[in-house]
Specification:
With about 100 residues, the protein is an alpha+beta fold. Helix content is about 40%, strand content about 25%. The chain has two helices and five strands, in the order αβββββα. A hairpin with a 4-residue loop joins β1 and β2.
Amino acid sequence: MPTGATPNPLMNLLPIIFIVVIFYVVVWLPQRKQLKERKKMLAEMKKGDAVITSGGMHGVISNVRGNLVDLKVNEETRITFSKEAISNIKKPQDIELENKVEVVK
């Protein structure tokens, strides 16, 4: 009976380690970066910022109180949201573009 070389147990774990490293680089790193950017955005919100909520409502921040944000939707309507409900802060160029859009009939 021929005797063969015994395989190194570390070589059996190498594909699993490789998959974990690829998963970390492809999934976890971008997600951590995105979470960090979101936390920064929520911390830097201030009165006068034009925002979009996670429900799609557009408005301007009229007051920030701890974890709550008062959103001015029109001249008479103000709605209170949690900071976490804000999904995006509009950039000035986006606001200018919205104002330039003409209604086509």
